[in-house]
């Protein structure tokens, strides 16, 4: 596929990736009734790693020790995020899980400040305030704030995703991002296979056919394909636009959850979701699209 076609497909890919991710929240919520969360993650990332390793087999010639430890660190961070997100989903709704996870786009600038001493802008501060306000609205149960354990775990997942984004920025310069991705997937799979020994473990009585279809969709569609779309799309799109399009995972997550009857959000919850999404837009674009360009 030539460069011209890829450039034309870049933004559609950046919409398809969060669309795929958003469609998984209610599926995972239902599937967790029949299987262990650790087993689900272990299967998902094992198959995704094997698929990408087979597709990009020529890249293995560049393997060295640096790739191994960098892939392991990336895997630990992303693995922690996915584990917290999955177990958080057991204690909250799919829509809240989707939105609270996406708060990572607001956290990233402040983590950069801690790591690189790059002070956040006033837009970053505004985004953080909007995000906290939105979380409060989503969590309001009529008598006060009601952050369940699942909500807290999901917010912690967003923090680890933010750490993962910073680590990718640090490690990916001059490195093969596909090889790093395969190694981090392998690390997550290893973490989760070990984790199954502390949870319900590998199902011994079999799983319903519907659950196996969910597992295949998660591994192939949500992990391998969506990640490829994300990488290609980001290559041919400016960072602010790409981040904004990828943050559509949150509203897509709510949309699918409501469409398939997984939850019934209240008006206050809808308002909170809108405020959180506004925080994401503020953080990633600084509302440049609303300002007139300076005359020259």
Short summary:
Helix content is 73%, strand content 0%. It has 296 residues and is mainly alpha-helical. The chain starts with a helix and ends in an 11-residue tail after the last helix.
Rg for CA atoms: 19 Å
Q: For the residues shown, what is the average pLDDT?
A: 81
Shape: globular
The major pleated sheet works out as: none
Poorly predicted ranges: none
Oligomer: single chain
* Secondary-structure element string: HHHHHHHHHHHHH
Beta strand count:
0
Query: How many structural domains in the coordinates?
Result: 1
Strand content: under 5%
Structural class: mainly alpha
Number of helices: 13
User: Distance between the terminal alpha carbons, to the nearest Å?
Assistant: 39 Å
| Helical percentage | over 70%
């Amino acid at each position: 596929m030539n460069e011209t076609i890829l450039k034309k497909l870049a933004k559609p890919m950046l919409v398809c990736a969060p669309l795929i991710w958003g469609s998984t929240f209610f599926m995972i919520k239902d599937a967790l009734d029949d299987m262990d969360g650790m087993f689900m993650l272990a299967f998902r990332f094992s198959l995704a790693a094997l698929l990408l390793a087979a597709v990009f087999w020529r890249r293995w010639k560049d393997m060295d020790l640096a790739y191994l430890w960098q892939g392991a660190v990336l895997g630990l961070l992303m693995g922690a995020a996915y584990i917290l997100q999955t177990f958080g989903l057991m204690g909250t709704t799919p829509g809240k899980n989707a939105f609270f996870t996406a708060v990572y786009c607001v956290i990233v600038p402040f983590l950069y400040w801690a790591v690189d001493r790059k002070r956040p802008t006033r837009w970053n501060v505004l985004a953080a305030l909007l995000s906290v306000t939105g979380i409060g609205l989503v969590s309001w149960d009529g008598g006060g704030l009601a952050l369940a354990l699942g909500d807290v775990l999901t917010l912690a997942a967003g923090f680890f995703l933010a750490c993962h984004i910073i680590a990718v920025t640090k490690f990916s310069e001059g490195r093969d991002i596909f090889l790093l991705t395969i190694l981090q997937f392998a690390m997550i799979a290893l973490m989760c296979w070990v984790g199954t020994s502390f949870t319900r473990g590998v199902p011994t009585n079999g799983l319903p056919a519907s659950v196996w279809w969910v597992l295949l969709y998660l591994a192939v569609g949500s992990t391998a394909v969506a990640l490829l779309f994300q990488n290609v799309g980001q290559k041919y799109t400016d960072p602010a636009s790409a981040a904004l399009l990828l943050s559509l995972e949150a509203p897509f997550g709510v949309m699918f959850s409501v469409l398939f009857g997984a939850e019934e959000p209240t008006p206050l919850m809808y308002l909170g979701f809108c405020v959180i999404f506004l925080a994401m837009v503020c953080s990633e674009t600084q509302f440049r699209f609303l300002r007139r360009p300076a005359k020259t």
